[in-house]
Automatic annotation (TrEMBL):
<dbReference type="InterPro" id="IPR000157">
    <property type="entry name" value="TIR_dom"/>
</dbReference>
<dbReference type="InterPro" id="IPR015073">
    <property type="entry name" value="DUF1883"/>
</dbReference>
<dbReference type="GO" id="GO:0007165">
    <property type="term" value="P:signal transduction"/>
</dbReference>
<dbReference type="InterPro" id="IPR036488">
    <property type="entry name" value="DUF1883-like_sf"/>
</dbReference>
<dbReference type="InterPro" id="IPR035897">
    <property type="entry name" value="Toll_tir_struct_dom_sf"/>
</dbReference>
<feature type="domain" description="TIR">
    <location>
        <begin position="118"/>
        <end position="251"/>
    </location>
</feature>
<dbReference type="Pfam" id="PF08980">
    <property type="entry name" value="DUF1883"/>
</dbReference>
<protein>
    <submittedName>
        <fullName>TIR domain-containing protein</fullName>
    </submittedName>
</protein>
<dbReference type="Pfam" id="PF13676">
    <property type="entry name" value="TIR_2"/>
</dbReference>
């Protein structure tokens, strides 16, 4: 019996064998013992079968010495075959909830310091360019979760001192959300707010939660390596509703 043989050598279980064919053929993935029986025309076990489409991908069942055999038994014509081994599939990412991350959350979320004015659950530091597409919808989603949110267009009034309002909002908020974006890192006021949040976080008065918006990890690292190393949520992988829900759960679980 004629067949095309590829010796895969020692392989790990879970790796993927990809076989590319020029026409339909029988494809068998076998360990050394079964390949020896196959060559002698004896009964053997294999993974695979008749492949009508190409490429064919077979997963190696367990670690060991493996072989691929391609033949036209019971078929007409001929085929050519090429074989390569791909890495096994990675496990699905399981992100820990914010309330379980020790580097982000202590045993208690600090209560806001009640000096003057209203107290807030969340202070949102952001660039004005990000208001329409993300920050305003996020603020609304947080308020839908019954959280008290410090958001400039909802809090500042004509004649207010911007710096005093920001300082008061920071002092009277439990969680400081920092919406990191390309626009944010080039702003003066946002950096002033960030410095205030970081200072209060280091002193244990506030929780800092970065949110990455339209920004890469490299950009965050170039701006602030310490922020890049913090647990964050990204608008590339989480919806506004999911982010708001997690923040609300964090605050309620530590109330």
């Amino acid at each position: 019996m004629q067949f095309i043989h590829t010796d895969l050598g020692q392989r790990k279980g879970g790796e993927i064998v990809e076989v590319t064919l020029t026409s339909g053929a029988n494809v068998r993935l076998m360990d050394s013992s079964n390949f020896s029986s196959y060559k002698r025309g004896r009964r053997h076990r294999y993974t695979g079968g008749l492949a009508k489409k190409s490429p064919v991908r077979l997963q190696i069942p367990s670690s060991g010495h493996w072989h691929v055999a391609v033949d036209m038994q019971g078929l007409r014509g001929s085929t050519k075959a090429s074989v390569r081994v791909l890495p096994g599939m990675l496990h699905a990412i399981q992100e820990r909830p914010l309330s379980d991350v020790p580097s982000l959350v202590r045993d208690d979320v600090p209560p806001p310091t009640e000096k003057e004015g209203e107290t807030h659950d969340v202070f949102i530091s952001h660039a004005s360019e990000d208001k329409d597409d993300f920050v305003r919808p996020l603020a609304n989603a947080l308020m839908d979760e019954d959280l008290n949110v410090w958001f400039d267009e909802m809090t500042l009034r004509i004649g207010d001192s911007l710096r005093q309002k920001i300082d008061r909002g920071l002092a009277n908020s439990r969680v400081g959300l920092v919406v990191l974006s390309p626009e944010f890192i080039n702003k003066g006021w946002t950096n002033y707010e960030l410095d205030g949040i970081v200072t209060r976080t280091v002193s244990g008065e506030q929780i800092l939660l970065p949110i990455w918006h339209n920004i890469t990890k490299q950009q965050v690292m170039d701006f602030s390596p310490s922020l890049a190393d913090k647990v964050a949520r990204s608008t590339a992988t989480h919806t506004i509703e999911e982010i708001a829900s997690e923040i609300a759960e964090l605050i309620r679980s530590k109330a």
